[in-house]
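Dear H.,

Thanks for agreeing to be a second pair of eyes. The structure we're designing against is below in token form, covering all 406 positions.
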């Protein structure tokens, strides 16, 4: 364990370590150093970016509507009629948020009705965030940290006597059922041990005055905003929550996250404050003919360009906000995914033989009969460009996963 060294071009300090439960979710393709930086809530990039012309955080208007209903005492109709809840939102974003809030509140109403029918006390909305962690240290420890915080993301609820705490974690589409055990255990333990706190952006959390009752039961609910369906991810006693926390080795996962030093190009680069100083990322200046101007970073793919060429608003809705309409993927995307999967498996062969020397498949899984011909033709074309063709023994091939435009 050593003190964390912030990137030279960043500002702020690394004395606050704030680990959200989603950060302990395993991500083999992610950047360990980038995730460690995200946990340093006071480290940020210098300067201020221009105001965003349109809102790009999918949940922003959805949470605004729920705050107006659950904490402001307004009806959903009243909240949806207030333009202040939809600042810089496109019409598609407004429509989605209103529909998602309706699905969510319907699911909440149904659950509370079921609790009433079972003679269980109602669960009331909780506005302050639950934050677990240690008291502020007088001096930085070996990591250079003076305050540790563990947080969760979602909508909090509790019984009036404080003995039951519950959190609902929304997903844009259907409910996410594959959250790993370490993440669920991390969420549940914050609910068990956390104190209601103010969590200002770019500043340490401040616990609200107590006393606070230690809960006896913890519940974690996943909810899909596309249909309002829910999944109970955890319904544990306090003792079981402690046992699950230890069994999932959450503390060890958090320590690994905090002490990570390896940089790996990945999707994490888009929001990493250390990117200007990163030596692990290849640079290709002017690749897209875009000048380096202060703006929010974005990732770009061929599918993004295709969507933007069809309709700019559709691109923003589907590729930026990730709002899907439930329709089947296009044939081009399915074909590309099938071809890519076969090539990835083929190129992972330790023998590193050229694709010229192996028979190509007669069909690829996941494609219809009409889609097979074009997909197989792509593999035939690949043979002429396979990077393993004529590769010397001392040479290696590495995929270029992300390019930073400067």
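And this is the sequence the design step returned. I haven't edited it by hand at all.
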């Amino acid at each position: 364990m050593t003190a964390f060294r912030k990137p030279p071009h960043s500002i702020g300090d690394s004395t606050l370590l704030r680990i959200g439960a989603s950060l302990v979710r395993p991500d083999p393709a992610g950047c360990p150093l980038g995730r460690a930086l995200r946990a340093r809530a006071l480290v940020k990039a210098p300067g201020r970016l221009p105001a965003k012309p349109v809102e790009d955080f999918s949940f922003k208007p959805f949470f605004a509507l729920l705050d107006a209903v659950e904490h402001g005492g307004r009806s959903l109709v009243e909240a949806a009629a207030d333009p202040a809840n939809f600042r810089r939102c496109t019409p598609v974003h407004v429509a989605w948020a209103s529909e998602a809030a309706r699905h969510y509140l319907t699911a909440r109403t149904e659950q509370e009705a079921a609790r009433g029918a079972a003679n269980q006390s109602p669960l009331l909305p909780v506005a302050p965030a639950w934050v677990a962690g240690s008291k502020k240290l007088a001096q930085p420890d070996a990591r250079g940290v003076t305050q540790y915080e563990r947080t969760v993301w979602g909508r909090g609820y509790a019984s009036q006597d404080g003995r039951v705490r519950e959190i609902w974690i929304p997903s844009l589409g259907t409910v996410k059922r594959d959250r790993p055990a370490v993440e669920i255990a991390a969420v549940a333990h914050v609910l068990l041990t956390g104190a209601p706190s103010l969590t200002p952006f770019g500043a340490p959390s401040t616990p609200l005055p107590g006393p606070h009752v230690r809960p006896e039961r913890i519940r974690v609910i996943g909810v899909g905003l596309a249909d309002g369906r829910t999944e109970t991810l955890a319904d544990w006693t306090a003792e079981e929550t402690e046992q699950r926390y230890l069994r999932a080795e959450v503390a060890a996962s958090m320590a690994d996250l905090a002490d990570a030093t390896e940089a790996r190009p990945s999707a994490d680069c888009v929001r990493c404050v250390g990117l200007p100083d990163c030596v692990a990322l290849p640079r290709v200046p002017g690749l897209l003919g875009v000048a380096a101007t202060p703006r929010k970073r974005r990732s770009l793919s061929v599918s993004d360009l295709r969507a933007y060429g069809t309709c700019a608003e559709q691109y923003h809705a589907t590729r930026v906000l990730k709002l899907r309409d439930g329709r089947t993927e296009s044939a081009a995307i399915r074909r590309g995914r099938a071809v890519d999967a076969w090539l990835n498996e083929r190129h992972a062969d330790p023998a590193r033989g050229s694709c010229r020397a192996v028979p190509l498949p007669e069909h690829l899984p996941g494609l219809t009969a009409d889609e097979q011909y074009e997909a197989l033709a792509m593999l035939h074309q690949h043979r002429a460009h396979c990077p393993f063709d004529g590769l010397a023994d001392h040479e290696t091939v590495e995929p270029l996963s992300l390019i930073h435009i400067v």
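Two observations from my side: The beta strands are 16-20, 123-126, 129-133, 147-151, 155-159, 164-171, 195-198, 206-207, 217-224, 230-237. Residues 401-406 have pLDDT under 50 and may be disordered.

Warmly,
E.
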